[in-house]
Design brief:
112 residues; mainly alpha; 4 helices
Amino acid sequence: MSNEFKLKQVKLLHTAVWAVMVAAILQIIYSGWTGHISPFTYGAFGLMAFEGLALWYGKGACPLTPVARQYSDSQKANFDIYLPEWVAKWNKEIFGTLLAVGVAMVLWRLFY
């Protein structure tokens, strides 16, 4: 298998994981917006906790990034994922903010 093929496999996996995590963030926002707190909401919180641990373990980078690095020397922010470069560059800031807003809304719904 070529490095290009292996990189494509890592990028597909990384993009799929990213999509699941974004779906979890959207679930949290939906729950906070509508007040419909369900087992899916708590599952989404669990996924976000797992993601936080993965980022902590990776020192701020997804653990798939070093795997992809084995197959590419690109310096682009999106070398390891199928996202526009600006989204990959600002990913944590964009989705971290959305997560914080969603968590705040859910906490508001639960306690007020």
